[in-house]
């Protein structure tokens, strides 16, 4: 797909080594070090930017100066041309989380590698194993509040009718319905939320589906265009990938809730809904399938 937020493998390889280009590998450290990575790519994961003192893992570090230092260590300046990639079939939408976070902090020249590491390897493009160190950049954060939603604001929203805003749960249908998950105090979903699982937007080769197909899939899930959309999941990672897909399609007002269910389910004043009938239907359907 040709889109300002995506870059294809051929174009990226042609531009490797260009001044001002920063390629960020957001896979796990072992995959980066031992499995190989795109030449010159630096490494970072969303965990590097999380609040070290919060029980909810997805919350961003509130110390903006510390976030700046972590981003500068990747060689990033405010005018850097940044490409983010991962293995789209072996993560939780981590490239979307990095895209959302960097956009929230004020960076504008951001693209995700279409097909990621999956397509890069399938095409037998060059790679390397050594750890990449770079000259620190001079990035200065300029947070964009309209790209984030925090728990207290969301709690107020769900206590009143909100036809202007759609809340979208990017987790699986089972989690949305109320499947118990280890480490999560309460199952279920935020009242009024619709479910649009994060993993339904890729082609078999790991590239992103065409815009018209994405639009149709989102509208089928009840995510209508023209309204503000708030995305959440368990820790703001899958929902950040959904955020990216929505921005790709052209939704203007989209926000991510980084605390998501890790934070929401721990606040017993935050309302929760379950759908027992739907959950039983899913379980019975799964049991009926041949093993």
Give an overview of the whole structure.
The strands form 2 sheets. The protein has a 5-stranded parallel sheet. Strands 7-6-8-9 form a 4-stranded parallel sheet, with helices on one face. 32% of the residues lie in helices and 11% in strands. β2, α2 and β3 form a beta-alpha-beta unit. The longest helix has 13 residues. The model has no long low-confidence stretch (mean pLDDT 95). It is built from 11 helices and 9 strands. α8 crosses α9. It folds into 2 domains: 138 residues, 3-Layer(aba) Sandwich (Oxidized Rhodanese, domain 1); 141 residues, Oxidized Rhodanese, domain 1. It has 291 residues and is α/β, with parallel strands linked by helices. It starts with 5 loop residues before the first strand and ends with a helix.
What proportion of the residues is helical, as a percent range?
Answer: 25-40%
**Radius of gyration, CA atoms, in whole angstroms:** 19 Å
What is the spatial order of strands in the main beta sheet?
1-5-4-2-3
Can you summarize the main beta sheet?
5 strands, parallel
Distance between the termini: 36 Å
Please identify, by name, the CATH architecture of the largest domain: 3-Layer(aba) Sandwich
Q: For the record, what is the CATH homologous superfamily label of the largest domain?
A: Rhodanese-like domain
Which outline best applies?
globular
What's the total number of strands?
9
Structural class: alpha/beta
Low-confidence stretches: none
CATH structural fold name of the largest domain = Oxidized Rhodanese, domain 1
CATH class of the largest domain: Alpha Beta
Q: Averaging pLDDT over every residue, what do you get?
A: 95
Percentage of β-strand residues: 5-15%
Helix count from the secondary structure assignment: 11
Indicate how many domains the architecture comprises.
2
Order of helices and strands: EHEHEHEHEHHEHEHEHEHH
